[in-house]
Amino acid sequence: MPTIEDVAKQAGLSRTTVSRVINDQPYVAEEKRQRVKEAMDLLGYVPNSSARRLRNQKTETIAILLPNITNPFFSHLIEAMEIKASAWGYRVIICQTHEDEKKELDYLELLRTKQVDGVIMTAVRNEWSKIKPYLTYGPIVLCNENVRGANLPVVYVDHEQAAYEATRHLIQQGCRHLAYLSGGNDSIVAQNRQKGFLKALNQSGLSPVLDEKMEGAYTIDHGRDVLHSLVQHHPNVDGVFTGSDEVAAGMIHEAKQLGLRVPDDLAVVGFDNQAISLLMSPSITTVEQPVTEMGEHCVETLVHYIEHPSVLFRQEIVFRHQLLVRDSTQQRVTMIS
Amino acid sequence: MPTIEDVAKQAGLSRTTVSRVINDQPYVAEEKRQRVKEAMDLLGYVPNSSARRLRNQKTETIAILLPNITNPFFSHLIEAMEIKASAWGYRVIICQTHEDEKKELDYLELLRTKQVDGVIMTAVRNEWSKIKPYLTYGPIVLCNENVRGANLPVVYVDHEQAAYEATRHLIQQGCRHLAYLSGGNDSIVAQNRQKGFLKALNQSGLSPVLDEKMEGAYTIDHGRDVLHSLVQHHPNVDGVFTGSDEVAAGMIHEAKQLGLRVPDDLAVVGFDNQAISLLMSPSITTVEQPVTEMGEHCVETLVHYIEHPSVLFRQEIVFRHQLLVRDSTQQRVTMIS
DNA sequence: TTGTATGCGTTATCAC
DNA sequence: GTGATAACGCATACAA
């Protein structure tokens, strides 16, 4: 494994000169620059990244914290983030927290131990007081998440408004007994969605159907479970706002198994506009988020803070969402032949 | 940011002793061990990982190369790998190659520049002669992939046998005009599947329907396109073996749109047993791979080679697959009331 | 324009 | 048991 020293010897020059060539610095005679390059090629030299990190106090690596990569929302987010990070010359370490407070903190340690230059959190379980100290060691950006009291860049869509629109739509379709599924933990995102849900109900003088079994639902299987719970305990429910297309898909699938008609007996709204929402029959009414743009923006913001260190300040970037109405809430228009 | 030196001063001891405590080494008096620990707590000391890397010539990081994280097969693989790697104390860098030869090599450079200790490749576009040189810098393990001439650990299922079984099943269901979709690039995996497909056909004296439009299909949209191509150019096809549930789902969805009945007019087999294969109606007959076990095994093999350096030798670990017969190939049995 | 010397923070070697 | 000291490989202040 050749070092800069070996290259210097081979070229008959000093380490400094070689270093200058490596880093494209000026004040190197063109002739010597060539000599160095030849020596590097000859020896197959590559700068040792560990040494560079130590010397430069930079890792060119970022960590992305997320609950679970198999959730399509997150895998799409990561896809965009990795591409953008890579374009900026950064590596991406993936950190699945599985909604575990301790794991979340363990991964934040990457910042303190200088293994990454910055962190993007797409889900936060710890309270702000636990997170805040890590800002000493590098920037943190929140994506699709929010934390009470946190003063750092936050990227998301207006979940309250989205839920409000979706719920209004359900009411317009004739639903009168509506249930809300958070689509995640007791995060602020979930709370905001609930706010929007309740607001729409209040405006129409309706009251919500709530059930603790419906909290924390964010997988297909949760959707199945919830549907059973609904049928058993709240058979009059005729419309559901869920926090994810997976939950919606699970509910619809199970509803069909039980002979319920969607949307006639039960209308369902999902979230995220995943591939599955179009493939299901009936197709799923859902809320689209600009995942790619959000991911890219997060990376750019983070990289900016990494390369221009300064005190982080609260900065909310709200992306536009869109309600996509499909068959799971709307009667298909009968073909007139 | 306190260093080991600061801790030493604070404790009134030498760097060496502090280092011994950090690394849980013997030959430190219990009393001093305590003093060091107190000093570390007091100063909030954390070992600097960059310095450690340089000194130990180890990064405790691995790179996972994959085409695209949004493909559920890969996201499930990564999930398992990340968990296992984390349990072994390794970080995971995610590297999306997007089927690009150059990106693949760029990411392999992580090995040469000492940014990772080892690499798992879940897709290979370059030929062996391009990959081989990197083995000088660290171990590489292939997952769900194979390369002609490669002498390194390879983890996969028997795709030829799986395709054979799936195709036989289609024939048993009465299909006589069968088409094959590789479900990926012109990889050895795809070739093996094709072998199995053709073997089953030969045994029954049938000949395949082939179409260049069907190569490289591995997304829902590809599935849609392929179906159109099929309807247009090969309307007599009554059975398809696809390389992924996504493609199968896309085909089925589009077939329904066009008024084709599945499986009556067209039977479809997928691959991977993704969530979607159960949610679609009809549910999709598919081949299950033990993704989690495969991912875990890859990481364990790689970590083994990292921690016990030795010449890599060819070593094939074949996991068991299973054909899951569902409604996309089989008439639903009518309930007798 | 080039080279020398120093330090980034850690751990291993060796002497005490 | 403990502590000086020398690397690990690189990049920069400073001298020439």
Automatic annotation (TrEMBL), chains A, B:
Stated name of the protein: LacI family transcription regulator
Pfam families listed in its UniProt record: LacI, Peripla_BP_1
Keywords, sorted A to Z: DNA-binding, Transcription, Transcription regulation
All residue ranges annotated as the HTH lacI-type domain in the record: 2-56
Domain of life: Bacteria
Gene Ontology molecular functions: DNA-binding transcription factor activity; transcription cis-regulatory region binding
PANTHER family to which the protein is assigned, alphabetical: LACI-RELATED TRANSCRIPTIONAL REPRESSOR (PTHR30146), NTD BIOSYNTHESIS OPERON REGULATOR NTDR (PTHR30146:SF136)
InterPro entries in alphabetical order: HTH_LacI, Lambda_DNA-bd_dom_sf, Peripla_BP/Lac1_sug-bd_dom, Peripla_BP_I
Organism: Pontibacillus halophilus JSM 076056 = DSM 19796
